[in-house]
Design goal:
There is one protein chain. The chain has 113 residues and is mainly alpha-helical. It contains 5 helices and 3 strands, in the order H-E-H-H-E-E-H-H. Strands 1-3-2 form a 3-stranded antiparallel β-sheet. Strand 2 and strand 3 form a beta hairpin. The protein starts with 16 loop residues before the first helix and ends with a helix. The model has no long low-confidence stretch (mean pLDDT 84).
Length: 113
C-alpha cells in the first residue's frame, strides 16, 4: 500500500469499485450526450460563413447599394476588404435581419403575461 500524505482539507471516501465504475460511466455518458445534443442543436450552415460582396449583400437585405454603403460606413456590419472589393459575411447579414425582426402579436402577449 502506498503511503498517503494527509493535508488538513483532504477528505477520503471508501467506495466500492463497482459503484465508482457505475458513477464514472454514468457521468461520462451524460456528458457525451449533452455535448452531442449541443452540437446538433446549433448546426452551422457553411454557406452562411461565406464572405459575399456588397452587391450580393444588398440584394440579400433587399436594400439599395447606396443604403448598403451607408450601413457599412455606420459600422452596422463587419466588413473585409480585398483589393478594392468590400465583403461581408452572409451570417452577419442574416443575424442583422434576425435582430431587427418585429415581434408577432402572440409574442407580445406572451411577454406581457
Amino acid at each position: 500500500m502506498l503511503p498517503i500524505e494527509k493535508k488538513p482539507d483532504d477528505v477520503f471516501l471508501i467506495v466500492k469499485r463497482s459503484e465508482l465504475q457505475e458513477f464514472l460511466s454514468e457521468t461520462i455518458r451524460t456528458t457525451v450526450e449533452e455535448a452531442v445534443d449541443k452540437a446538433h442543436s446549433s448546426p452551422r450552415d457553411p454557406q452562411e460563413e461565406v464572405p459575399i460582396d456588397i452587391h450580393e449583400g444588398a440584394k440579400l437585405l433587399g436594400i439599395s447599394l447606396t443604403t448598403m454603403y451607408s450601413k457599412i460606413s455606420n459600422r452596422e456590419f463587419n466588413t473585409f476588404k480585398r483589393g478594392r472589393k468590400v465583403y461581408v459575411l452572409k451570417s452577419d447579414l442574416l443575424n442583422y435581419i434576425k435582430a431587427n425582426k418585429r415581434r408577432s402579436r402572440e409574442e407580445i402577449l406572451q411577454q406581457a403575461k
